[in-house]
Amino acid sequence: MNLNLVKRQATLAAPAMCAGITLHGGEHVRLVLKPAPVGTGILFIRTDIKDRDNRIVVRPGAVTKVKQCTTIANAAHISVATIEHLMAALAAAGVDNLVIELNGPELPALDGSAEPFLKLIEQVGVVSQYAPRRYIKILKRVEVTLAEACAFIEPAPCLQLDVTIDFAESAIGRQRIEIEPDVKDFRDRLASARTFARSHEVAALRQAGLSKGGSYDNAVVVDGEKILNPGGLRYRDEFVRHKALDLMGDLYVAGPILGRVTTICGGHATNHALLTALMADPNAWRFTHLKAAVSSLEEFSPAL
Q1: How far is CA 239 from the centre of its chain?
Q2: Burial class (CB in 10 A: 0-12, 13-18, 19+), 64
Q3: Other C-beta atoms within 10 Å of 234: how many?
Q4: Cβ(66)–Cβ(274) under 8 Å?
Q5: What pLDDT band is residue 303 in, cutting at 50, 70 and 90?
């Protein structure tokens, strides 16, 4: 089943919970995923915040930071960081409506990939709901350039990703992946690809107060031609696979997309810049859903 073409909204069949250390803050947090009614969208609730609005709806306008990870926040300046791996798993599983309770400012890193989140979702199951699923149908090409990175999105019948990276470190080098990430391909090719950092970046991140919880258990560390992790890589091209995973999660901030997305030397900042440029052009996209009885598309005017 191609989850790019699912007709109805979906949520989890039952609550699911996990806990772990956060990558950047180094704190222990607890995450609870709860089924939600039609039209809820993806909603984070910071259960440790009691004195102001602790609800953050996932949408492009809620993204506030894209350095090292994707962070969203509400008008009360309550934020949740490192949402991209969970968002990628939700995108692959076709989950539209979910309440996510979190008792800290950042999601747990777990093993640095999306695989633990996907397994959590698949353990409880996903159920269809009565309302049609709303897609963003790409109508024309939109392109952005950010420093040495570029990205563009074009019309396509389903979500397609084409990701290229190019690093000076010979352990990474130039890598490319093309994928139509339905749940099977996501599980087989992207889900277990871990976040990565170069050794010189780790020291800089820690000096900046980041990556306090980073370790070989939740990230791949590269030093020139060497992989420092004792267990090595899960895939020869694990780096570009993780970049595609991040892209998928960053795109799902807007909801499911029918289009082909190409990024070259991109990252969270490029992904968000592309999404922002797309949303700013009402002639470039249109809300669409698949009718329950037929496969033709019914379209709605943009209204974010």
Answers
A1: 15
A2: middle
A3: 16
A4: no
A5: very low
Closest C-alpha to 66, from 78, 54, 46, 83: 83
The whole-angstrom separation of Cα 103 and Cα 247 is: 26
Task: Please name the residue that has the structure tokens 């999306």.
Answer: 114
Q: Is 268 a catalytic residue?
A: yes
List CB contacts of 203: < 8 A, sequence separation 6 or more. none
**Centroid of chain to Cα 266:** 14
pLDDT, residue 298, reads 41
- Structural domains of the chain, with CATH: 3-133 (3.30.230.20), 136-280 (3.30.1700.10)
- Type of residue numbered 58: V
Residues sharing a CB contact under 8 Å with residue 195, sequence separation 6 or more, in sequence order: 23, 85, 109, 112, 113, 218, 219, 220, 242
> If you average pLDDT over residues 175-186, what whole number do you get?
96
Mean pLDDT of 30-35: 98
Exposure string over 269-284, b if 16+ CB within 10 A, otherwise e: bbbbbbbebbbeeeeb
Please give the Cα distance from 53 to 285 (Å, whole number). Answer: 32
Which among 24, 85, 242, 268 is annotated as catalytic?
268
User: What pLDDT is stored for residue 35 in this prediction?
Assistant: 98
Amino acid, single-letter form, for residue 110 = L
Work out whether the CA dihedral 91, 93, 96, 102 comes out positive or negative.
negative
